[in-house]
Amino acid sequence: MERLLAPAARALPLAIGALLLSPARASATGFTDVGQDLKPRPATAVKVEGYFRTRGELLSNLDLDRGLSPSGQTLFPVPEGGGQNILFGDMRLRTDLAVYSLGGMVAVKARIDVLDNVAWGGSPAGVPSASTTQRTSRSDSFVLKRAYGEVALPIGVIAAGRMGAHWGLGMLANGGDCLDCDSGDAQDRIAYITPLAGHIWAAAYDHAWSGPTAGRRDGVRRIGVAPSTQVHGVTFAFLKWNDTLAHDRRRTAGKITFNYGAYVAHRWQGSDAPYEYLSIAQGARPTGSPIMARGFRATAFDAWLRLVFPHGRIELEAAAMVGTVDQPSLVPGVRSNRPVTSTQIGLAVQTEIGAPLDPAGGGLDLGYASGDSAYGFGASNDPQLPTPARGDLEGPQANLPYDRTVDNFRFHPDYRIDRILFRELIGTVTDAWYLRPHARVDLLRLRTGRLQASVAGIASWAIQATSTPSGKAPLGVEIDPTVSYVSHDGFTFALEYAAFFPGGAFDNPRAGLAARNAQLFRVRLGLTF
């Protein structure tokens, strides 16, 4: 059931614009930077941006030494040869490409990731101990994530294609543009953006799924043969927004800047063809039509506020989603006579005392993601996971015919608040609330960059205690210190540590085991261009 309702939690707002990015990027992520770099040009021009990053990490005791779940699973993969530690590393080369036409009012843009999160030492040729080279699969070596066009008109900008998406703090829709991000949202859409009365106004149509297809006579193109199964979405948004340069100018002048925005998005699907994406449905495909009624509809609302002071910032994003699936069964020929419903609420608040260039700063962040009383957190969107038992960490939140609600709100996985609990063990912030005090200080400032130390503490609790492995609400406390160097020419180096002290939520009462502490060490290297 989560596969049917989860798109409204992340994909519905994908037609919304980025609020935190520079307005002249080679690959725009949203409405505030779509079309911002279209300007008169004497000749065809090409712009290339991106980064190379590599990360190495040591994970220690992330299974918390609390034994197996009732389904026979550990909280986190454990070393097969024994011991507590896992050593791992990966890399990525990202390229954002923009080509501007003669005249400059038309642009075609693309995002290409090479060795996308590919592991160090992956795919050795032949016997690993004797290998002298690495072989990479096509899917890992070259990933086209965005491809779209922009055209400037006298009354606005039209953009069409597979585009990135980001809104507000990135709690719900996140473009995955940060140097440490792993995923990122994209959607096939047509969008219209125009400035009016000091605001940005936008409308978008999303085509999320074309349904089953068949080949045409030319042997090249395909056509959708079940229009009723297609997934559609529409979004309407407005926002008042200032870019980073404007904030810096107003800070210098001692002024306060108030930005805000809101959107409403609706997604729907009349019928479905689950044999296209589920192995269980493929095995149960009936002799008649495999198309089955669905009746999916979901609506998302999101509001974003940002107040920037000369020496501080308060930023907030709040979202609500309601959805219904009239026919929740995923197996053709098997019907359910009652719908599955969803009501989800999420909130994220960030505060900062001190401007970005001040030598020290700090603040208090907090967040809330509504929960569901079903066992497990429901962070995964995999519809083929087995129904969870009491004490399991993960599993679907609807269990027909008894449980017909999916109410746990999921933060986007790239909205990071910690390094172990939500990022590694659960997978995202869901069915929980947290407090996150943080502080930073410059250790050294040079002409080429600055060396900075920072620390964050995260205390978190489950909304529904039934979701946790032990049935208790306290999730634990995590301490995340960092030492980083950022140069002005695009070089970033960071040393990160994390210590997680689990709460009673992760104890194993059946085995009589208490959860033990976990640690993480990470080194990050980034080169931007």
General description of the model:
With 529 residues, this protein is mainly β. It has a single domain, classed as Porin (Beta Barrel). It is built from six helices and 20 strands. It has an 18-stranded antiparallel barrel. A hairpin with a 3-residue loop joins β18 and β19. The longest helix is centred in the middle third of the chain and has 9 residues. It is globular, with a radius of gyration of 24 Å. About 3% of the residues have low confidence.
Brief sketch in words of this structure:
The protein has 529 residues and is mainly β. The protein is 6% helix and 46% strand.
Low-confidence stretches: 6-23
Helix content: under 10%
Coarse morphology: globular
Radius of gyration in whole Å, from Cα?
Answer: 24 Å
- Under CATH, the topology can be stated as Porin
Query: What's the tally of helices?
Result: 6
| Main pleated sheet | 18 strands, antiparallel, barrel
Structural class given helices, strands, pairing?
mainly beta
- Roughly what fraction of the amino acids lie in strands? over 45%
First-last Cα distance: 43 Å
DSSP, total strands: 20
Number of separate structural domains: 1
CATH class: Mainly Beta
Mean pLDDT: 89
CATH architecture: Beta Barrel
